[in-house]
Specification:
623 residues, alpha+beta, 5-stranded antiparallel beta sheet, 20 strands, 37% helix, 25% strand
Length: 623
């Protein structure tokens, strides 16, 4: 191919009298092409342009969809009116090489241009492309198609492109994903079975506690099938009455557990109706009241009434808060635990509620609420005073609530009493939903508090603030190689021991590499749950200190999250909140939050005590 089009001989068949004005398209971009003086450029006079180029220009210039074409070996750019907003702030781009117009995007797009120039049609969906807009480099995403553009002689002289920006959609989907992930986290943490079902009772969705209790997947299963046969007539009658009167459903029934045992539950459900008044679905919850029911069977009538009033008590509280007014609202005011009573009432603001939190935790929790308002999903632990002057420990989960306009005006979350929480944690990464549910249920019965994740990405979102435990790689998605995931966890994950289950027996080399990367154990593909549970128990003492002396500085520091350890290293090196924030690409306010959090975990009341603990653990100058 000649270096420039100007080096090609003018086609002998061209008659200037016939081709003059052959560009027939309308529009501002078309007018600019006709008005431009091209005779001193490599393209030459407009009337000498290849008819194939003029035809292609006529096609794209009158399209209302963003389109462009390039011509020549240096890809001189032509575009229609719909494409012009993409060029905002870039000056006069007509006829300039594409690489000069988009130098920031050219490294990403160059290979696709080369493939199209070689005769291959290219299609990309949601490709991330850096783009300079108004003197600011932005992350943008595009779906586009590139096609080879041939001259009248049949050789490829350029590229024709059709494109559409998908940045706004992808960012909206990401925001919605975070919101849904937050809601899923809250529902999985709820100390009650939650579900949604079709009008015929078929389960559409259920939280982790429901799946753990029922011990099977939700597909093709009806909620009424879990109800004891003796209780089904009363349940059906209560449901019919609720439908007729259009009120919420409530009753006490026995539900079948996975092992066939029946337990008493307080069941509440509410209907969702469409605009035509037709029932769309039921949303329900069930709270285990087996212990209460057993006590009520032998109690007197007066005791029975007291216990019945207490049966709705839940050790957790769902809440929402308005970002503008700071007003807090408890979402299930009936039967709340006594410690949650301060969240129920009109006009309560979270500033008033924060006053009841331990002074060393107050700033961290206030900052956590603010982070949730900026779009983060957070989980923090804190101490709150009791009436008798003691302190109880709680876990607060908060997440943004996205409005229909895509704005965050409210946050929501859950408050859980964890004063007696002591089960060993197991973080299960399993990509297969059915197998994930089976393993979570089996390992839960083995005595572990299991928190499942679909993939490493979902685990990474919360890995900075996990409690001590063990990470179990059971299965990863096909696009996430095991060794790559293990190396990512080693470099960027929390300081938790991790084991792998499911490595084929003939992959000895992979086993060796995993152990070198730091795996506490590697189990074969057919490992039984008992073997996995034993491997987890062996790994737990490393992290939870079961084999170490309680209260030792090295053990406490080993339990810190990755981000907390980075802040501690910065403090040990003599850094301030500002210098540490700069080094970690965080805000000083966030560093202050992590600093308060790690001081709480280490039991340090002052910076001097914190640095003394760091010295006892062998951390000197941040090493």
């Amino acid at each position: 191919m000649p270096e420039t089009i100007a080096e090609q001989e003018a086609p002998s068949w061209l008659d200037p009298a016939e081709v003059c004005g052959r560009l027939m398209a309308k529009g501002e971009s078309a007018d600019l092409i006709r008005e431009r003086c091209w005779h001193d450029t490599a393209l030459g006079r407009l009337e000498t342009w290849d008819p194939a180029l003029l035809t292609a220009l006529d096609i794209i210039l009158e399209s209302r969809f963003p389109m462009f074409l390039t011509w020549g070996c240096d890809h001189k750019l032509f575009y229609n009116d719909a494409y012009r907003p993409i060029l905002m702030g870039k000056g006069d781009c007509l006829g300039r090489p594409f690489s000069d117009v988009f130098p920031e995007a050219w490294p990403t797009l160059k290979a696709d241009f080369s493939r199209a120039g070689a005769g291959e049609a290219i299609y990309r969906e949601d490709l991330e492309v850096p783009l300079l807009r108004n003197m600011r480099l932005s992350r943008t995403w595009w779906s586009f198609s590139y096609s080879p553009l041939r001259s009248s002689k049949g050789d490829i002289q350029g590229v024709m492109g059709v494109l559409y920006e998908t940045t706004r959609r992808l960012l909206a989907e990401q925001t919605m994903w975070y919101s849904q992930a937050g809601m899923r986290a809250v529902t999985d943490l709820a100390p009650a079975m939650l579900w949604r079902c079709a009008p015929d009772g078929r389960i559409l969705w259920a939280n982790q506690m429901f799946e753990t209790y029922a011990g099977e997947t939700s597909e093709a299963r009806r909620f009424q099938d879990l109800v004891a046969v003796e209780d089904q007539p009363a349940a059906a009658e209560a449901r019919i009455r609720a439908d007729d009167e259009r009120v919420a459903f409530e009753g006490q029934f026995r539900l079948r557990r996975a092992d066939g045992v029946y337990r008493w539950f307080l069941v509440r459900a509410k209907q969702n109706w469409d605009s035509d008044g037709l029932l769309v679905e039921w949303c329900g919850s069930a709270v285990d009241i087996e212990d209460w029911h057993g006590a009520a069977a032998v109690a007197g009538q007066e005791d029975r009434e007291i216990l019945q009033a207490m049966s709705g008590t839940q050790p957790a509280l769902l809440w929402t808060a308005d970002l503008a007014t700071h007003e807090l609202v408890g979402l299930s005011s009936e039967g709340q635990a006594p410690w949650a009573a301060s969240l129920v009432g009109d006009g309560l603001r979270w500033d008033d509620w924060l006053a009841n939190i331990h002074v060393e935790d107050r700033a961290r929790i206030a900052a956590a609420f603010e982070r949730a308002g900026w779009g983060e999903i957070i989980q923090e632990k804190f101490r709150m005073g009791e009436i008798d002057g003691g302190w109880r420990r709680y876990r607060a989960t908060a997440f943004p609530i996205v409005s229909g306009e895509g704005e965050v005006r409210r946050i929501g979350g859950m408050l859980v009493d964890i004063s007696r929480e002591a089960e060993p944690r197991l973080y299960l990464i399993q990509s297969d939903p059915a197998e994930q549910n089976r393993m979570a249920h089996a390992l839960g019965k083995a005595g572990f508090k299991v928190r499942p994740f679909d993939d490493l990405r979902a685990f990474s979102l919360v890995s900075d603030d996990l409690m001590p435990g063990v990470v179990l790689f059971a299965s990863l998605a096909e696009d996430q190689p095991l060794l790559q995931a293990a190396n990512t966890l080693r470099l960027n994950g929390p300081r938790l021991p991790w084991i792998v289950a499911g490595v084929p027996g003939d992959h000895l080399n992979m086993v060796v590499q995993l152990m070198r990367l730091g795996a506490a154990n590697v189990l074969p593909q057919q490992a039984e749950v008992e073997a996995i549970a034993e491997a987890v128990r062996e790994a737990l003492p490393r992290q939870t200190g079961l084999a170490d002396e309680q209260g030792s500085a090295p053990r406490k520091i080993a339990e810190l999250s990755r981000r907390e350890r980075e802040v501690l290293d910065g403090l040990a090196a003599g850094g301030t909140n500002k210098t540490i924030a700069l080094a970690l690409s965080l805000s000083p306010r966030t560093v202050e939050t992590y600093r308060a959090q790690l001081m709480d975990r280490l039991g340090a009341r002052t910076l001097a005590e914190l640095l003394k603990l760091a010295a006892e653990a062998g951390i000197v100058d941040g090493h």
